[in-house]
Amino acid sequence: MQFAIRRRRRPPTVIMVPLIDILLALLMFMVATSTFKRQPAIRLTLPVSREAKASPAEPRTLTIQIDKAPPYFYLGKRAVSPKELEAALKAAALADPETAVAIRADRQAPWGEVVRAMDAVKAAGFRKPIAAFTRSPEK
Predict the structure, then answer these.
(1) What percent of the chain lies above the pLDDT cut of 90?
(2) What pTM value is reported for the model?
């Protein structure tokens, strides 16, 4: 027995304009907050030298190598601490202040460690400027 005739109901209409506004606001919020998430403070691009030499031209050269992981400093093949580096540089400068000093730093070495090595060379009293190893461009 059927007392009432069921009419088909129309589905409710969804107003799209407010939904689009909300989605755009959320999208702008996400873009604005995600761009500052992993942005480094300073971007450094290490230079490539066209005139790069295989080794310094000076016959008396003291080479400081700086690695990307601790221990950072190496004199020859021996790992040294920052204090040992300063003491060794002062001793070498007292023996011969005309010795040339070259720094060979890994591309991913912390810049602070490179600056620390340069400060130690200047404090030791070497007369010649510090040379830096570079790589020649790939051809």
Answers:
(1) 27
(2) 0.56
